[in-house]
């Protein structure tokens, strides 16, 4: 009974709205009535018994049952649609403007605070007034296409010969010319041409498509005026646009070896969007064949509504404009991450040695930091001292080919993502990632073990040696007590501070990929070889060696130095903003524990020592979890993968751990880690012979 009452009330409200829709020869149709109709449909989001689709069905039923009301509404809609301007909405809405990322970001922020005025009676303005909410496109797209087709039929505007559609098609043709000119201009941009190679300057499909479109347009306009079909006149133009797409793919492919700038990424995205929009308009206007033009028109309407709803979205801007750069960066980071996924016993023990070496160095860096802290410098200079200690120390560790375990997740996350095959935003196979996760887990285990054990042993040895020489502890009692308190996972901010360090670790991985990308894009090694004064100072051979080293290590060097600067300056940043910001790093915390224990004469309550040791473990887990999750998410998004089937993958890993737990900690002797294997060429040939 309540459902029937709700339907009756909804039908009555609808009739009141529809009766207000009247065409007025002296004035334009009032858009307020359409806004009221959309509000009525939107009520379906909060009334489950009459959802949006049910309400749309009521609209169709009312129009079918009441011919006079249907004719009135049809006249209103035809007058309203006929008064709109379609040109620049078709050519610009949803396509990046010709601006830098910074300009686009500042414009969106400004427009969110103070929306820009739009030219009166444009489609974009009408969409903004009728569908003002940012999620309107979501419920709108849930309405089935046949419902829209039926509505257009009732309104008498379903046939392309209707005068209204002649106007729309004519403006679509004009929009195509704007898009074509834009494509031609972007296609001959010097940076884009350089990314393709010098040979592509002689002949460009980007210019040829503009000439072809203009040859087609005059005849197309005349046929529209004469109310004739366009007879798929743009077949050759479509071929040229396909060639343009191939050139864009080639530019992206070249970027793997040459690098890519944000500016070039923006131009490529704008090219792709313009070509896609031009192709849609060609099909809608009749210049290209299409299976169902009505459904395509409805889908285009959804697209325009979505773009209008999201035009101020900073998240969408970030994803669209930085996606390609992010992919390049994560690819370079993944190359570094390859060494963090050991497959053989020899690689495993090499990693153990590298981690042990880093643990030794970090024990000294921790002591130096304590010394800088004891100087009681002004906060700014203390932060500078901490940053240089960390930054130069991490660079020194890299030069010695040692490994900091906590830097692995940011690199291995990119390595894992680079091995994944995405299909429609999902992971198509979990075999590779299972094997890689096992390899990474094993490598991470030995790296952390090497860092922590050697850092503790080295710090203990240094403390004992210096304590003997100095006839006293190397760390004061107050400093030692503070170190122990900072390791308490309950009474201190160890966990949030460890999470901050995890963010810094993630950013260091991004920095590594970013500088490797810049190294390729700006050809820094080649530039170094041409520096005259450097050649005179070092000689040609050494300059070449330096250039080769920079080519292989610039990203890692920059990553280590800036990572150290971040760790050293977080506390100062917290002081400036008045927040208790700091960092906790597992290896430094381990060394601090060793120095604090020595300073206290190893005479501390067992409970305090155990709690501090647990704190070290928790700090390490938080370091790794935060940096890995951020890096892995970034790498997946850059490859268009939004779901990896987490529960299914977790079950596979649990089963693997129960059956072969040793695989997660030690490698099988002198062979790759066991996992889902791929058939070799020899085995395939043998199977074929059988």
Layout: helices, strands, pairs:
Elements: H1 2-19, H2 31-42, H3 52-65, H4 67-82, H5 87-92, H6 101-113, H7 123-130, H8 136-140, H9 145-155, H10 163-187, H11 190-196, H12 205-225, H13 235-258, H14 262-285, H15 293-309, H16 314-337, H17 345-374, H18 379-399, H19 408-418, E1 422-423, E2 426-427, H20 431-470, H21 477-486, H22 494-521, H23 524-529, H24 532-538, H25 540-577, H26 586-599, H27 606-638, H28 646-659, H29 681-689
Task: Describe the overall structure.
With 690 residues, this protein is mostly helical. The chain has a domain at 325-676: Glycerol uptake facilitator protein, CATH 1.20.1080.10. The chain is built from 29 helices and 2 strands. The protein has helices spanning 2-19, 31-42, 52-65, 67-82, 87-92, 101-113, 123-130, 136-140, 145-155, 163-187, 190-196, 205-225, 235-258, 262-285, 293-309, 314-337, 345-374, 379-399, 408-418, 431-470, 477-486, 494-521, 524-529, 532-538, 540-577, 586-599, 606-638, 646-659, 681-689; strands spanning 422-423, 426-427. Helix 18 (379-399) runs antiparallel to helix 25 (540-577). The chain is elongated. Residues 422-426 and 671-690 have low confidence and may be disordered.
């Amino acid at each position: 009974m309540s459902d029937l009452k709700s339907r009756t009330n909804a039908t009555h409200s609808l009739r009141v709205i529809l009766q207000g829709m009247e065409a007025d020869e002296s004035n334009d149709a009032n858009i307020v009535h359409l806004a009221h109709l959309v509000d009525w449909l939107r009520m379906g989001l909060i009334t489950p018994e009459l959802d949006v689709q049910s309400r749309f069905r009521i609209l169709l039923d009312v129009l079918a049952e009441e011919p006079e009301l249907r004719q009135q509404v049809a006249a209103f809609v035809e007058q309203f649609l006929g008064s709109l301007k379609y040109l620049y909405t078709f050519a610009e809405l949803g396509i990046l403007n010709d601006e830098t990322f910074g300009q686009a970001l500042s414009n969106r922020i400004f427009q969110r605070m103070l929306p820009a005025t739009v030219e009166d009676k444009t489609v974009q303005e009408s969409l903004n007034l009728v569908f003002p909410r940012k999620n309107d496109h979501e419920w709108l797209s849930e309405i089935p296409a046949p419902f829209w087709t039926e509505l257009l039929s009732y309104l008498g505007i379903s046939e392309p010969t209707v005068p209204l559609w002649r106007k729309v098609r004519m403006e679509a043709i004009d929009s195509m010319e704007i898009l074509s000119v834009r494509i031609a201009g972007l296609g001959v941009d010097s940076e884009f041409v350089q990314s393709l190679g010098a040979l592509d300057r002689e002949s460009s499909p980007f210019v040829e498509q503009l000439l072809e479109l203009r040859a087609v347009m005059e005849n197309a306009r005349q046929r529209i005026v004469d109310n004739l079909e366009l007879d798929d006149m743009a077949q050759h133009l479509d071929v040229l646009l396909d060639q343009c797409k191939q050139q864009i793919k080639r530019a992206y492919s070249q970027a793997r070896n040459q690098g890519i700038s944000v500016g070039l990424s923006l131009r490529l995205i704008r090219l792709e969007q313009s070509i896609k929009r031009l192709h849609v308009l060609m099909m809608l206007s009749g210049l290209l064949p299409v299976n169902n033009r009505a459904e395509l028109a409805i889908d285009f309407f959804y697209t325009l509504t979505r773009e209008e709803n999201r035009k101020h979205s900073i998240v969408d801007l970030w994803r669209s404009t930085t996606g390609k750069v992010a992919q390049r960066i994560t690819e370079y980071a993944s190359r570094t991450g390859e060494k963090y996924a050991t497959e053989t016993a020899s690689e495993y023990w090499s990693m153990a040695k590298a981690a042990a070496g880093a643990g030794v160095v970090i024990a000294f860096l921790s002591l130096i930091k304590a010394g800088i802290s004891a100087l009681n410098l002004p906060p700014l200079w203390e932060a500078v001292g901490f940053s240089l200690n960390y930054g130069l120390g991490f660079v020194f560790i890299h030069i010695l080919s040692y490994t900091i375990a906590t830097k692995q997740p940011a690199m291995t996350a990119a390595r894992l993502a680079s091995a994944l095959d995405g299909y429609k935003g999902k992971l198509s196979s979990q075999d590779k990632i299972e094997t890689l996760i096992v390899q990474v887990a094993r490598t991470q285990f030995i790296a952390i073990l090497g860092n922590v054990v050697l850092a503790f042993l080295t710090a203990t040895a240094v403390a004992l040696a210096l304590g003997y020489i100095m006839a006293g502890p190397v760390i004061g009692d107050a400093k030692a007590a503070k170190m122990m308190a900072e390791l308490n996972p309950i009474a201190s901010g160890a966990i949030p501070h460890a999470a901050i360090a995890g963010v810094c670790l993630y950013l260091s991985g991004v920095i590594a990929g970013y500088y490797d990308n810049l190294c390729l894009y700006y050809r820094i090694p080649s530039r170094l070889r041409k520096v005259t004064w450097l050649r005179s100072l070092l000689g040609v051979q050494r300059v070449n060696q330096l250039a080769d080293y920079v080519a292989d290590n610039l990203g890692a060097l920059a990553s280590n130095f800036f990572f150290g600067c971040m760790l050293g300056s977080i506390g100062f940043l917290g002081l400036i903003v008045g927040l208790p910001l700091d960092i906790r790093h597992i290896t430094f915390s381990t060394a601090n524990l060793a120095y604090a224990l020595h300073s206290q004469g190893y005479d501390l309550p067992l409970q305090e020592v155990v709690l501090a040791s647990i704190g070290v473990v928790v700090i390490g887990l938080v370091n790794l979890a935060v940096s890995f999750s951020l890096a892995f998410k970034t790498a997946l998004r850059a490859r268009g993968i939004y779901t990896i089937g987490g529960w299914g993958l977790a079950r596979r890993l649990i089963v693997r751990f129960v059956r072969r737990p040793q695989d997660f900690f030690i490698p099988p002797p002198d062979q790759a880690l066991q996992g889902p294997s791929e058939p070799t060429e020899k085995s395939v040939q043998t199977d074929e012979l059988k």
